[in-house]
Amino acid sequence: MVGLTEVDAQHKELFDIATEIFELFNAHLVDKYDNVMLVFDKLKNYAILHFAHEEELMLKYQYSGYNVHFEVHQQFLETVDSTLLGLNEDTDEEILKNILIFVIEWISDHILKMDKAMADSIKKLQSKS
Ligand SMILES: [Fe+2]
């Protein structure tokens, strides 16, 4: 938890969607690939909304780390996009799982470091106003 209510709620939603993907891996579905890709897409689209919310907050409070943080968000989305484009029905399930693990680890690490630093600065500014 970084201590900003909306940001924390959105982080929880990201992990909930990731859990949904994990559950799909365990389900014995015939068209597992299609289902997994649908939820990956949902995760990506939610990440886009969430990043936009953080970026709005950073701009609102004129956060000095905005440029770097914005760039890191963009690079992550580009990596996810190009990774998802390279997948198809024949992609090994292990590879899909590894992508999910990469995404979860990236989000966790990003929250602990960059989002925490951003939230600490914003909370200080909020308490002054
Ligand atoms: Fe962020």
Q: What is the topological layout?
A:
Layout: H1 5-26, H2 32-60, H3 66-85, H4 93-128
The structure holds fe (ii) ion (FE2).
- How widely separated are the two ends? 23 Å
CATH class identity: Mainly Alpha
Question: Using only CA atoms, what is the Rg?
Answer: 16 Å
How would you describe the shape? elongated
Largest sheet: none
SS content category: mainly alpha
SSE order, one letter for each helix or strand? HHHH
The total of helices stands at 4
Bound small molecules, by name, code or SMILES, are: fe (ii) ion
Q: What's the β-strand tally? A: 0
Helix % is over 70%
Multimerization state = single chain
Average pLDDT, rounded to a whole number, is 96
What is the count of distinct domains? 1
Question: What key phrases describe this protein's structure?
Answer:
elongated, mainly alpha, 4 helices, 129 residues, single chain, Four Helix Bundle (Hemerythrin (Met), subunit A), binds fe (ii) ion
What this model shows, in words?
The mean pLDDT is about 95. The chain contains 4 helices and no strands. It has a single domain, classed as Hemerythrin-like (Four Helix Bundle (Hemerythrin (Met), subunit A), Up-down Bundle), CATH 1.20.120. The protein has about 130 residues and is mostly helical. The two termini are about 25 Å apart. The chain binds fe (ii) ion. The site of fe (ii) ion (FE2) has 6 residues, from helix 3 and helix 4.
